[in-house]
Design goal:
This protein has two domains: about 100 residues, Sandwich (Immunoglobulin-like), CATH 2.60.40; about 160 residues, Sandwich (Jelly Rolls). It is about 15% helix and about 45% strand. A hairpin with a 7-residue loop joins strand 6 and strand 7.
């Protein structure tokens, strides 16, 4: 073997040794953190009943923050990793489907935040059971749960259904003792609006209608605006028939703001309505409960 070939071989061996050594050093410095896991089965709402009504909610997701930074948005129930150790603040906000649409999932502005502190260890699982109130700044302009015998609803000129009453049938009631029920004969209409109307702030201030419903035909939810001698009807959302109770959070923020600007100089008041039309050849039933008009 020539001296040149020997030198080349020594260089090759030395280079390989240096590469392996460097790889070992780097791998030692890159410590792999084994994550812990947080489990959330559901999220519950609490309320001051005389001011805010029912706690019934439809929470589809949770927005999770760790030390103030968004960790992720998770559909319920969920199990998700947290690649941290030590003591950390976990904040959880309720997520809903705005207007009942899967494409508009948001953290509902009127529900508060659940905060807890966890001392996290790798590979461990932590069960969290969040309970969240309405935010202190929330204003319930109106809520009706039909539990007091009467109800603060009135018929409109579009109503020609003669069968609207409060049912106490346990197979029909959503919660409590009573729910609203309308039976529509073929080619009949139903429309009920809040008895009173309400001054809403507009200016982009968050405003929603909440409603629980179970219906054999599609229904429509919206608002009436009274401005001077003008009465404007504004549909917001159409809800498909459902043989199970559901809840909708119908956002009316921009529509209310636009209408107030449109009738600038006139006092505007708003009322909520629920409407249905039976275009079929047999009687159809509409059930609903817990109407709320919510704003900041």
């Amino acid at each position: 073997m020539t001296i040149q070939k020997l030198n080349n071989k020594i260089k090759l061996i030395l280079g390989s040794f240096i590469l392996v050594t460097l790889s070992f050093v780097v791998s030692c410095k890159q410590k792999v953190t084994v994550p812990a896991y947080i489990l959330i089965d559901s999220l519950k709402i609490k309320s001051i009943y005389i001011k805010q009504g029912s706690t019934a909610a439809s929470i589809t997701d949770v927005w999770v923050y760790v030390d103030g930074t968004l960790n992720g948005i998770y559909p319920l129930p969920c199990k998700f990793p947290v690649a941290l150790t030590g003591e950390h603040k976990i904040s959880i906000q309720p997520g809903i489907k705005e207007n009942g649409l899967s494409s508009t999932r948001i953290n509902y502005p009127f529900y508060g935040t659940f905060d807890t502190t966890l001392t996290i260890e790798p590979e461990k699982e932590y069960q969290v059971n969040p309970i969240v109130p309405y935010r202190d700044a929330t204003k319930m302009e109106y809520f009706e749960d039909f539990e007091n015998g009467g109800y603060r609803l009135k018929t409109s000129t579009l109503n020609n259904s003669d069968s609207f009453y409060l049912t106490d049938d346990v197979n029909e009631v959503f919660e409590g003792k009573k729910s609203a029920k309308a039976v529509l004969k073929p080619n009949k209409f139903m429309e009920y609006a809040t008895t009173d109307s309400y001054a809403l702030p507009g200016n982009g201030i968050e405003t929603y209608i909440e409603l629980n419903y179970k219906t054999e035909i599609d229904i429509e939810v919206g608002f009436y605006q009274s401005a001077g001698s003008q009465v404007v009807r504004y549909p917001i959302v159409s809800l498909y028939k459902s043989d199970k109770w559901k809840k909708v959070y119908a956002k009316i923020t921009s529509e209310v703001s636009t209408q107030i600007i449109k009738y600038t100089g006139q006092i505007s008041n708003f009322s909520v309505y629920v409407k249905a039309e039976n275009a079929e050849s047999v009687n159809k039933t509409v059930l609903f409960d817990n109407i709320k008009l919510v704003r900041f």
